[in-house]
Amino acid sequence: MRAPLPLIIVLQAGIFHASIQGVSAANLAEKPFAGKQAAVTMQVPPGFTVDLVASEPDVRQPVALCIDDRGRLWVAENQSYPKHTNKAANDRILIFEDKDGDGLHEKRTVFYEKLNYVSGLEVGFGGVWVMSPPFFYFIPDKNGDDVPDAEPQLLLDGFGNFANSHNIANGFAWGPDGWLYGTHGRTNWSLPGKPGTPKEQRTRIDGGVWRYHPIRHIWENYADGCTNPWGIDWDEYGEAFIPNTINPHLFHVIQGAHYEPYRNRASSRYAYQRIATVADHLHYLGGRNVRAGIGTEAELNLGGGHSHCGILIYKGDNWPERYRGSVFLHNTHGRRINNDTLHRKGSGYTAKHRRDLLISKDPWFMGVNFRTGPDGSVFVTDWSDTGECHSTRNTRKHTGRIYRIRYGQPKPWNGNLAKLDNLSLAQLHLHQNEWFTRHARRLIQERAANGDDLLQANKKLREIFHSDLETPIKLRSFWTLYLSGDLEESFLVKQLNHPQENIRAWAIKLLCENPPSGKALRKFEQLAQKDRSPLVRLHLASALQRISPEKRWPLAENLIGNAEDVHDPNLPLMYWYGIEPLINTDLTRFVGLAGKTEIPLLRQFITRRVAEQ
Is the pLDDT reported for residue 9 higher than 60? Predict the structure, then answer.
């Protein structure tokens, strides 16, 4: 195994460059920098500072991170990597608490141990959600005393852990729609289901995005493909993005989409073409051999390598405004944090590379996760190991770090959002730091599920939604109103006429969380003909797959008649994914779609599909 070489970083011509010292890599990889040395030697733009929050022996092999309503860090340690079994091991869940409000953490609590191969966690709904393949658990702690109320509750089994060590289910985060989202690698394919569910009633996933509803206890495959995505985040309009390894590094997550690389199996057999990355660049030299050039100056100048882990779209209030809404990814070969900026392109986005945010001189730095905290700074976990994703086998289980990246001196915050009344939670939807809004939304969702009186909160949220504030603020209240149970279908249908395309798009999405009514479907069909927003048509295309096949025809016929969508990077393919199953309901009418569409690619796919009957 070739250990990564140390970097001496200089700032030149507006981008970070790296040169390699002529010293034996084997000698330099014998031990990492001390935690504080690693923090102070990290290269960051002027005004930024990296603080060491925790390091070994207090934390080892931190693989997942989340923040609770009190601003405390919850960290999952995966000390069993790379050996996974179906038995309990010594993986732990830790809590790091900031007692004096300085952003650093003085108190450490072991919440739970005896887990095996932990790869994801999130808190909420009176407990902790944990991915420990092949199991998905909920550990209850309803009174919040940091002592589990009972042993872990097994929600789902069937998650793969039999192939390589890192292509597994991972990366939890609460979505704006109230579902718990996760990502999944390709080689450890899974058949998730409630314990005892027969194999034929389970849905296979071997790469992509999935979600789980914390109240309805429903699991869904959300988007299909990619090699090994690890983490998910949403922009201020509620559009999701994931990182990826091996293939290009960033994808816009569209419900029902199929992504590269191709999978020759039932769920994607007829996805003749897959949706591509949104990035207009690579962080490696390219070509079929993605490992070529690892550690060379040329690759480091491009961004450090093809292996990415973790994602953050910054929406806090501490970093300079120029970073708000841009994407941050850990580059595990380059020992750095890449920064891409998002720009609308047709129905989706394109991502452009900007100067890397951080480069570590520590040869063991291997970032995994990000989370924005209540003070607007960003916390990152460092797996702290040598090697790279093809060959890491982690014989060094004693290391691990957590850092905080801040700009200037953030204003300290101490509190507990769970103790706020409902109206105060609603008012937090105006906060510049979306950390407060996300937690307030989940708390309102929890209280709605418990039957709490949300009258005053919903009144405030409606006031925000109907205000003249910017669309992202209006969307925040829209999502929470839906989760509070205060939006009837008639209100959602009315929003299909809203002047803002993002609100129309989200109205479509929320209407499909349950089978939409005939009135909603008729309005969808009108939008497919008349709405000139490609984003709205993208959400209508996703809706196709959420409507029973016999009811899809009018919407499908109207969508595929849009000639302006011919060159859109997403719409022809999303239309195809939605209409392909119709061949099994009415072959003659399916063939007739070739004469109705204005998109040549769809005619080609229809012809090919019929020929394969």
Answer: no
5, pLDDT greater than 50: no
Residue 182: C-alpha distances to residues 168, 253, 567, 577 (Å): 10, 12, 31, 22
Q: Where on the phi/psi map is residue 530: left (φ > 0), alpha (ψ -120 to 50), or beta?
A: alpha
Kindly report, residue by residue over 135-189, the tens digit of the pLDDT: 999 999 999 999 999 999 999 999 887 666 677 878 899 999 999 999 988 778 8
Q: Is residue 461 part of a domain?
A: no
Q: Convert the pLDDT of each residue in 455-488 to its tens digit.
A: 999 999 999 999 999 999 999 999 999 999 999 9
User: Does 528 lie in the same domain as 401?
Assistant: no
Q: What CATH code is carried by the domain that includes residue 213?
A: 2.120.10.30
What tokens appear for 227 in the block? Answer: 């090699």
Give the pLDDT confidence of 486-525 residue by residue, as tens digits: 999 999 999 999 999 999 999 999 999 999 999 999 999 9
Domain that includes residue 33, residue range = 8-198+207-407
CA 368 distance to own-chain centroid: 13
φ, ψ dihedrals at 357, nearest 5°: -75, -40
Task: Give the E-state strand segments of 179-274 in sequence order.
Answer: 180-184, 208-212, 219-224, 233-234, 240-243, 250-253
Domain membership of residue 238 (yes or no) is: yes
Structure tokens at 467: 């205000």
- Check: CB of residue 372 under 8 Å from CB of residue 396: no
Read off the tokens for 46. Answer: 């002027």
DSSP string covering 342-396 = EEEETTEEEEEEEEEEEE---TT--EEEEEE-TTS-EEEEE---SS-TTT-----
If pLDDT is split at 50, 70 and 90, which confidence band does 1 have? very low
Q: Is residue 403 domain-shared with residue 526, that is, in the same domain?
A: no
Q: Beta strands 378-382 and 135-140: pairing type? A: unpaired
Q: Tokens at residue 501, please? A: 């395309």
- Bridge partners of residue 233, in order along the sequence: 241
List the structure tokens of 215. Answer: 């109240």
Per-residue pLDDT reduced to its tens digit, 205-249: 888 999 999 999 999 999 998 888 999 999 999 999 999 987 799
Residue with tokens 């891409």: 340
Contact call for residues 250 and 219 (beta carbons, < 8 A): no
Pairwise CA distance, residues 241 & 312, whole Å: 9
357 in the same domain as 229? yes
Domain boundary among 369, 386, 407: 407
Closest CA to 383 of 393, 375, 373, 374: 393
Give the rounded distance of the alpha carbon of 306 from its chain centre. Answer: 18
123 within a domain of the structure (yes/no): yes
Structure tokens at 379: 């916390």
Q: How many domains does the chain have?
A: 2
As a whole number of Å, the CA-based R_g of the chain is: 24
Is 433 a member of any domain? no
Residues 399, 56: contact at Cβ < 8 Å?
Answer: yes
Round the average pLDDT of the chain to a whole number and report it: 90
Point out the domain boundary residue: 407, 434, 466.
407
Core vs surface per residue 388-408: b (16+ CB within 10 A) or e: bbeebebebbebbbbbbbbbe
